[in-house]
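Supplementary Text 2. Reproducibility record for the structural model of the 254-residue chain.

All settings were left at their defaults, and a single model was retained for analysis rather than an ensemble. We include the record here because the model underlies the residue-level annotations in Supplementary Table 4.
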Amino acid sequence: MKEIKVFNTELSAAFKADLSQLIHDFESIEGGVGKRNIIKTTTLNSSNLNIKAFKVPHLFNQIVYRFFRKSKAQRSFEYAHKLTKMKVGTPKPLAYFEYLTPWRYTKSFYLSEHLECDLTYRELTTNFNYPDYETILRAFTRFTYSLHEKGIHFLDHSPGNTLIKKNGDTYDFYLVDLNRMAFRNLDFESRIRNFAKLTIHRSMVEVMSDEYAKCSGEDYQRIVDLMWKATTSFQYKFHRKKRLKKKLKFWKNT
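Retained model, structure tokens:
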């Protein structure tokens, strides 16, 4: 099996060799979170880092990734570099690894520095009494507006994919799970629909709409109507998909 490994050019030869050994020993590293993709946190030379092991795709996609499309690991690595150059927060990319046969793509890994955060956006959806709640939510909205202004369309803009760190009286934001992004000019509707996966709560949509209106100069009512419509539409499709999966699972087990 062919091994492809690409490293951050800032790393020393010794550190690269140690990262390679970590990947070879991945199964023996304790812990790990995730179902489809597994993320493990470990320490190397006093540095904390994350290793994300992507699920081996089904046969058709093994062929697609082998010949026609960049892997999720490669995209995560390259997008992290691009975000860093654009001065957008994300954990420092270290390397990615891919394993290929002559005809198929199999395993892949993405390695990055581990970033300690105070919370993620998800906490805002469950704890409305979190300290500085509205301040953080408005700062997050300004962060999203800055992404849009830079032509960054984060397609997985969902509750667990933005890490938040308190920095004095302000908050810094860091994107993770980067393999689905697009870099292009965003029209108004695309910008507002980018909020659709973030919450089920109308009150949060109203605050984010108000702040986005202040940033963009667009009409608040126009924004809140579109954002809420996008939110409810996403929730309907999400739950419909879950119901269909449950039915398919039932039929398979009968």
